[in-house]
């Protein structure tokens, strides 16, 4: 016979009631929070997996914020570049209008006035700021205004050549900015000619690229160099460059006012031949860069200052219009190429955004399966646990009143 003391009865009963009460409280907490696992002891394995899933969700949320930032920055840049192409297109229309030979000096000044307004508009676009107040075309120096006027009144780039990059997923980065120097300053310029050493009073004009294939053929393994043209007292025309000492000239005999071609570039020299033993020299500038602001500023200056009635004035004016149109076309092409590049970046950002959204949904589904409570099951358990606790309390109350004196 096993003897059970009253203390053991009381201790066992109280422990059982505490266990039942704890289970009931846990179930009530699950129902109130909607979570099956409120502390690691509820389900250690599930708690560990939930912790890892929370870390994954935190990582995804961080990258989603980066994706939104990248998307906003790229869309803002795209909008600014689109506005700049519209302004340059209007400037080009004005340049074509300025080439009309019937325009008076007042007409040209009127066009010049609108060009000045458009120049300021283009500068404002190039100085676009983002939501945080930083200049988007200043490279790394976001607090520095991208373009400012120098003492001579010309618009000059003030930023650096940096490009900001943002990580939008593990190992996936995307550039979110472009410096204004690459977009607005380093624009291929029209091929031009200048007098290098001329004693006869002749001048070179009408310089243009007429056959790009011939230019590439003349410099098959090198970047095209500036070309030196020489005319001697007999009228023989020769051409050379630093990488090619002898270039073909067609025709190679000088005739004042008649065009000739060298390496796909056409030019015209007008004026007398040099006197012996002098040799006139000219330079064809092949690979110059021209800021779009500089192109517009030169155009404005030419409209205001070139006297078409002076000797050589009409030729100078015609060259100004022709070269300005080429430079403006090159500026538009430069911006369009950048827009194409932006489109590729925006596609990458969009695809990454979709991937992160899918990853977030999938992770949340798994987390929900581990964490969320089944209300029907929990409420059923709560009812059952309440019943068991109530029965245990009643049983304990009766047992605790038993005594040997009741049997005497």
Which fold name is given in CATH as the topology of the largest domain? Answer: f41 fragment of flagellin, N-terminal domain
CATH superfamily of the largest domain: f41 fragment of flagellin, N-terminal domain
By DSSP, the count of extended strands is 12
Please identify, by name, the CATH architecture of the largest domain. Up-down Bundle
Output the number of helix runs: 8
The domain tally reads 2
Secondary-structure class: alpha+beta
| Helix content class | 40-55%
At the first level of CATH, the class of the largest domain is Mainly Alpha
Net shape? elongated
If strands are numbered along the chain, what order do they take across the biggest sheet?
Answer: 5-12-7-8
Largest sheet: 4 strands, antiparallel
Radius of gyration: 41 Å
Gap between N and C termini, in Å? Answer: 20 Å
Beta-strand content estimate: 5-15%
Coiled coil: 53-80
InterPro entries: Flagell_FlgL (IPR013384), Flagellin (IPR001492), Flagellin_C (IPR046358), Flagellin_N (IPR001029)
Pfam family, one: Flagellin_C
Subcellular location: Bacterial flagellum; Secreted
Annotation keywords:
four-stranded antiparallel β-sheet; alpha+beta; f41 fragment of flagellin, N-terminal domain; 13% strand; 408 residues; 53% helix
Could you write a compact summary of the structure shown?
53% of the residues lie in helices and 13% in strands. It has helices spanning 6-33, 44-98, 105-126, 180-185, 212-218, 292-305, 313-371, 375-400, and strands spanning 147-149, 155-157, 165-169, 172-175, 192-197, 203-209, 227-231, 237-240, 249-250, 259-262, 265-270, 280-285. α1 (6-33) packs antiparallel against α8 and α2 (44-98) packs antiparallel against α7.
């Amino acid at each position: 016979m096993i003897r059970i003391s009253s203390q053991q009865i009381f201790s066992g009963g109280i422990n059982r009631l505490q266990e039942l009460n704890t289970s009931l409280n846990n179930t009530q907490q699950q129902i109130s929070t909607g979570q099956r696992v409120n502390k690691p002891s509820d389900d250690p394995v599930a708690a560990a997996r939930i912790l890892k899933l929370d870390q994954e969700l935190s990582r995804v949320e961080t990258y989603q914020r980066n994706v939104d930032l990248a998307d906003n920055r790229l869309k803002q840049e795209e909008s600014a570049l689109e506005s700049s192409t519209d302004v340059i297109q209007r400037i080009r229309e004005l340049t074509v209008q300025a080439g009309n030979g019937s325009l008076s000096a007042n007409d040209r000044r009127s066009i010049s006035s609108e060009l000045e307004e458009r120049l300021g508009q283009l500068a404002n676009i190039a100085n676009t700021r983002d939501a945080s107040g930083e200049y988007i075309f200043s490279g790394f120096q976001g607090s520095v205004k991208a373009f400012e006027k120098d003492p001579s009144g010309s618009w000059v780039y003030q930023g650096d050549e940096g490009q900001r990059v943002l990580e939008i997923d593990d190992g996936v980065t995307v550039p979110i900015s472009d410096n204004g120097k690459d977009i607005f300053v380093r624009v291929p310029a029209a091929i031009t000619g200048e007098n290098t050493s001329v004693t006869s009073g002749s001048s070179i004009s009408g310089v243009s690229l007429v056959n790009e294939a011939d230019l590439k053929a003349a410099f098959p393994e090198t970047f095209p160099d500036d070309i030196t043209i020489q005319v001697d007292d007999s009228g023989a025309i020769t051409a050379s460059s630093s990488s090619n000492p002898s270039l073909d000239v067609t025709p190679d005999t000088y005739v004042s006012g008649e065009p000739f071609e060298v390496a796909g570039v056409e030019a015209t020299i007008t004026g007398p031949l040099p006197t012996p033993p002098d040799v006139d020299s000219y330079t064809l500038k092949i690979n110059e860069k021209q800021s779009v602001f500089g192109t517009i500023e030169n155009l404005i200056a030419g409209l205001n200052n070139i006297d078409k009635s002076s000797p050589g004035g009409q030729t100078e004016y015609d060259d100004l219009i022709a070269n300005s149109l080429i430079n403006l076309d090159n500026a538009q092409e430069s911006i369009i190429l950048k827009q194409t590049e932006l489109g590729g970046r925006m596609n990458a950002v969009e695809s990454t955004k979709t991937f992160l959204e899918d990853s977030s949904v999938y992770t949340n589904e798994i987390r929900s399966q581990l964490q969320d409570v089944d209300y029907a099951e929990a409420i059923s358990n709560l009812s059952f646990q309440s019943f068991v606790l109530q029965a245990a309390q009643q049983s304990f109350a009766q047992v605790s009143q038993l005594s040997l004196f009741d049997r005497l």
